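The records we work with from here on pair a chain with its fold. The integers have meaning only within a learned vocabulary of local backbone shapes. A complete example follows; check for yourself that the lines match position by position.

:::
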Amino acid sequence: MDFSDICYPRRKQCTAADLSPSVHWAQRHITKRNKEYPERLIYDHELLYVQTGDIEVNVNGKAYHATTGSLVYFGAGVPHRIKVLKGTEANFLGIHFDYFDEHEVSRDEDIIVVEPNPGRERFCAEPKIEELAVPSEIPVRIPPASIVAAMERVIEEFTHRQSGYEAIVRGYMLQIVVELLRVPSGEVTEASHLVKLEELRQWIQQRYSSDCSNTALAARVNWNEDYLAKLFKTAFGITPNKYVQSVRLREAKRLLRESSHSVEEIAGLIGYADLHYFSRLFSQREGIPPREYRRLASVY
């Protein structure tokens, strides 16, 4: 094995057989709405799964939007910060870990950097394995259900610490790590494709009221429509069109609950010029029309 210490996270050339992940902290936690954490560095790596909520994440100076169902990855030595957006309370699954059982933790200062000039060797390495992805290249993603289930088991075992929990935790972390490293099947075979798809997903979350047709989205990434649809579905388990609908309808529900805009105005604000189409789509998804949803939301 050899190191390629060009930037953070440090990267270690290795094979999958060299992986021996250890967990330093694992917990469920709730963050109040409008909470903003200052920028920080950590010595190890962190996985943060958003069970519920809406947050803004800044990783190495670049902003990302993470909502319910997103998995955030913070690499060792990479500056990052989190802000919980207005009107939401965020619930997380959080795990701090390393890949090579290389970091001893006995206090918070062993995880969060507080000293002004920490030694480079103190930051945990990230694996660089031939034909596998590098996790830090995709700070925010939609994980498969298997990763979320494994994270829940890690937290459960780490919290209760019954006899033999270390072996169980290591086993589940190995599963999580390998799934993070694997490039999705199908035609998504390059990390650059995954980065481009994630950037497009973030753009949809922020610009959902714009033209989000398959034609417009394909033009943004300079792919043809069929190729985009296939890669997007492979990476995120949903077609671009269905994803746009889910983002728009989530915002529609928020506006119905929290604003005084008319249903017609809300349809326009989220990108639907046709009120009847919006109402039909909303009813199909939620089981009730928009006006009925607003009435029930006001009751509760």
